[in-house]
Amino acid sequence: MYNLKLETYLKIIFLISAFSLISAYFIEFILGHQPCNLCLIQRIPYGLSIALLIYNYFFKNHTKFIFLLLILVFAFSFIVSFYHFGIEQGFFQESNLCKVKNTTEIISKEELLKQLQEKVVSCKDVTFRILGLSLTTFNIIISIILIILLTTIFKNYEKFKN
């Protein structure tokens, strides 16, 4: 691993997170590929990491704890992505999470039943690929790389701090 300063690693993680979110929104709104519910959930860790990194930028007294939180955030990202990948490959069955649209607007059970009858983007349908790989696969790879990087930095925090 390159012997960079902590701030450089934090900037790299920030750029990866920002690029991931911008790419997801570009694919959705510019290219017109509708995400499934798990795709939307997979965006949450990137938003959280950006928020944590912005917090750390202004309040640098908890940097080691921020690294720990980032490990947990990207572990969550890996778990959700792995589950989504399993659904795409047919290893797991789609849950009801994949079948309901926007649950924040549902007021009654009749509206919920109506939503279940509407066509929703399935979690097993891959609508966008890069180099033959789904975005979920890329998310798994990014999450693993970031978990390894963050864990290494966390374990050797004092070495990287200097």
Describe the structure.
With about 160 residues, this protein is mainly alpha-helical. It has one domain (about 5-155): Up-down Bundle (Bromodomain-like). The chain has helices at about 5-30, 35-40, 45-60, 65-90, 110-115, 135-155, 155-160, and strands at about 130, 135. It has a two-stranded antiparallel ribbon. Strand 1 (about 130) and strand 2 form a beta hairpin. Helix 1 packs antiparallel against helix 3, helix 3 packs antiparallel against helix 4 and helix 4 (about 65-90) packs antiparallel against helix 6 (about 135-155). It starts with 5 loop residues before the first helix and ends with a helix.
Question: Which terms would index this structure?
Answer:
162 residues, mainly alpha, Bromodomain-like, two-stranded antiparallel sheet, 2% strand
Task: Explain the layout of strands and helices.
Elements: H1 6-30, H2 37-41, H3 44-58, H4 63-89, H5 109-117, E1 129-130, E2 133-134, H6 135-155, H7 157-161
Antiparallel strand pairs: 1-2
Helix pairs in contact: 1-3, 3-4, 4-6
Task: State the gist of this model.
This protein is mostly helical and 162 residues long. The protein has helices at 6-30, 37-41, 44-58, 63-89, 109-117, 135-155, 157-161, and strands spanning 129-130, 133-134.
